[in-house]
Structure of GntR family transcriptional regulator:
Amino acid sequence: MKSTIPDAGVPIAPPAQNGGDRQEASLHGEVLLRLRDYVVEGNIPDGARVPERQLCEMLGISRTPLREALKVLAAEGLIELLPNRGARVRQLSQRDLEELFDVMAGLESLAGRLACEAITDEEIIAIEQMHYEMYGHYLHRDMHGYFQANQRIHESIVAAARNETLKTTYANFAGRIRRVRYSANFARKRQRWAEAMREHEAILDALRRRAGSELSDILFQHLRNKRAAAIEHLTEPQEDAPASP
Amino acid sequence: MKSTIPDAGVPIAPPAQNGGDRQEASLHGEVLLRLRDYVVEGNIPDGARVPERQLCEMLGISRTPLREALKVLAAEGLIELLPNRGARVRQLSQRDLEELFDVMAGLESLAGRLACEAITDEEIIAIEQMHYEMYGHYLHRDMHGYFQANQRIHESIVAAARNETLKTTYANFAGRIRRVRYSANFARKRQRWAEAMREHEAILDALRRRAGSELSDILFQHLRNKRAAAIEHLTEPQEDAPASP
DNA sequence: AGGACAAAAAATGAATGCAAAATGACTTCC
DNA sequence: GGAAGTCATTTTGCATTCATTTTTTGTCCT
């Protein structure tokens, strides 16, 4: 195996010489965003070595801004930098995943608690709306729609917490986990799906009553159950074969 | 005002040419550790501009590894990088502090919950020991000892959670807050001090019973009260003058 | 033929150099 | 006298270059 990156034939960046009109940020910032997405979306196989040279060509930049971006990604926990031996996509062990899920659970739990202090009736109504949409997707077995709605609900709760620091941290961890494409698979278990719907109803109920401590508990348990389903799915891969390769 | 850094006469790094036998990590890693400590310990005034050149001379290195370290510190939230205008120590608004305290509260709350699942009797005994030590410091009005014991207790709970990811994240936020030297001041309020002792007893009690959900609540409230005391202290600076300048 | 050693090739880590942007000072004009 | 414009200096951003370390390849010996 020579090139560790799968089909990186197409440069991520346009020529980028200077023609680009939009200049969203400094070069290293742009590179950071691109690289982060690239890694989060799973374009690089787990644990694969990523030669700097190759990334440079791919992005059309020199090594200096690239290395700065790599350092940041390493600090974010997406990749790991072995001294003198380059960057690798961080391989998440099952234990790592468990830990990440638990931290996410803690963050959502906190978000719920804080949200109860600050959320407006309108926001609750909006979340109820998403909940009904989600229920519709559930009934139609529309997994993709279900998960999008689900994600929006959780993000709305985080947003209602009125805490930018929390929001940023949450997004960071969500990115780390997103590499593991658990969602599309573990949700196929019908039983878990029904359970999740019930939990979501309990979440809404606690939210309406602004019962912070209670909501905190429910959210933690909800995420814990998600974690269990995800981990179970990993150890015993598929219960019915997914369509995507 | 020319040099924004106070008494940076002494280079942080020893000669560092090559004589040093110990080589803890790569240069940028070493620089990162040093710079982080330097910032966390508050050696640079809030919002002060930090010319790269000056830091380079101070550390005896070139700009490349320094800039890498700065990017990481920015990602960690300790400094902020304004495009084309250099690095500034991140100025924490009161709102920022509130947010940070709340996230810390959430993390400790999570730590408590997880600790209840995994903590051993020996660890609880060790924490009880620290608790009694802390009580001793409390009785002797030994603020410094009290805070050290207090910090050790909270760190022990985090350690008992058996979650390295949580531990790292916790340490990160602790570092961000540490810049604000609240501890030495707000603790002078006797009433709050007594309250905190009572809360700590409740924490121990819940921990002994492995009552995760309950401990989670107590810890959150405990940190919330800390936050209130810290913020109050900031708005209405000292109730009795501190000895240190 | 298989393994160990050595040299070449490549990749990483750090330093230097160069262009662009910002800061500051000075001049000029109203 | 004050404000705006212009030029010099400083500083940042990125590319290039140099020095080490690692990895690969080729050869030799058992």
